[in-house]
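tool_call predict_complex ligand=FE2/S2 (inorganic) cluster
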Amino acid sequence: MIQNGINTLADSYITHPVAQPEDKMQFSEEAVAELEEIISHYPERKAACLPALWIAQREYGGHLTPAAIREVATRLGTSQTEVEGVATFYTMYNLRPRGRHHLEVCTCLTCAVMGAYDVVHALEHALDISIGETTADGEFTLSEAECLNYCGNATVVQVGDHYFPDISPSNCLNLVEELRKSEKYTPALLADSLVKIQTPGASLKGGGSFKAEEI
Ligand code: FES
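tool_result ok
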């Protein structure tokens, strides 16, 4: 009897997620529609955890706050611990604020041989930060990245959803200047692109910054 009651409550929670009282859900209407479209491709709601986190990363301004993780858990009808486990496992989810542009320099073998650390040092010097830090004006975060699968054009720098090949200590400064002029917030663009690539139908119904034909 009690077991039945528990099952009924759990089932109802999974199909009709309820927000925890202390949280204000922040997903826009478009983001909710996009998520529900994605969920419809999976046998159970929680299987959409990866794209849900990308959407959350976009909706929460580029990084996953504890409230963002709770919102994903609520919308997927799963536990916060489970979502947190996924968010902390993959380095592509940002758990703290990033600069408006996240410069990820590949320092894996081929890029390292081709001078990736010279690029890193040039960027550190130009931006007056070290790897892992964000500039005081919030414009740039600098990180190392594992192989970006673009080894033929080493050294490679990823910024949001764009790869910049053949980067050297001199042309990396041009890249910084070009990015300064751009008005885009690149971490959110990456989240948009990845969700749409994973679930093509989402690009037609969901919000986000890209039109389907742009990806
Ligand atoms: S080693 Fe840098 S892209 Fe592969």
